[in-house]
Specification:
Radius of gyration: 18 Å
Structural class: alpha/beta
Number of strands: 7
Oligomer: single chain
Number of helices: 9
Length: 246
């Protein structure tokens, strides 16, 4: 008999709600202090992984890449967002929780620097856009539980770009799961990202956010653009008294 993923995922949610005691606000996590932990964020197709990889190679930092292609629901999600959003977001949340736990124990706790191509708060950006109010309420409670003790970055790089640029880059990279992505969904997601980043800057003034416009900078093809970003990042890390910086 085929497994009903909708029922299975909702049962996982309920199990977590029933068996894990929520402690504190969940807003915390611990800042990494002097050990560089950089996250690169921005909407789909903006170049997060490419930039994170370049930063990793320049500074010799460990690279944390989010799991995308392994999500069994993602292709179905782009075909029918309402039907598959719950399962898709749950998969991403659990995998990012596991990844960040591993990166903390294997690198950050051992004073080894890390750059990641995502910040875990992106889960809420996507979930707010796609889940029903009842689903989001449950999802947010689980998010608070899982992220309560996660390490927090000491610098966030935020990339944005126009819809045309995002669509062009998505087409160029040619991921099968993204072939049916809706331009309207992508445009709204970019707006959601902008609002979320602005809110983050107000609520977390201790974590600098470096903003770069992907329409004006092509750090993949133009070495000078990458050098400009690296210079800004280096200055920010030094100003925050982080170690392990060239």
């Amino acid at each position: 008999m085929a497994l009903n993923w909708t029922t299975f995922t909702k049962n996982v949610y309920q199990f977590l709600l029933d068996h894990i005691e929520i402690a504190g606000s969940g807003e915390g996590g611990h800042a990494m202090g002097e050990i560089p932990f950089i996250t690169v964020e921005g909407p789909i197709g903006v170049g997060k992984t490419s930039l994170a990889k370049a930063i990793s190679e320049h500074f010799n930092f460990a690279l944390l890449r989010e799991i995308v292609d392994e999500n069994p629901f993602l292709g179905k999600f782009y075909d029918n967002i309402e039907e598959w959003s719950f399962q898709t977001e749950m998969f991403f949340l659990c995998n990012r929780y596991k990844q960040l736990g591993d990166i903390n124990s294997q690198y950050l706790s051992k004073n080894k620097s890390v750059v990641a191509d995502y910040h875990v708060f992106k889960n809420l950006i996507f979930a707010q856009r796609t889940l029903s109010s009842d689903e989001y309420k449950k999802y947010y409670e689980i998010y608070q539980i899982l992220t309560k003790d996660m390490p927090r970055p000491n610098v966030i790089i935020y990339l944005n770009a126009s819809l045309d640029t995002l669509l062009d880059r998505i087409k160029i990279r040619g991921r099968e799961v993204e072939k049916n992505i809706s331009p309207l969904y992508l445009e709204q997601l970019s707006i959601d990202y902008e609002q979320a980043i602005t809110s983050f800057e107000h609520t977390h003034p201790e974590i600098p956010v470096l903003r770069f416009n992907g329409d004006e900078l092509d750090f993949v093809k133009n070495g000078a653009d990458l050098e400009y970003i690296i210079e800004k990042l280096t200055r920010s890390l030094k100003n925050n008294s982080t170690t392990n910086i060239k």
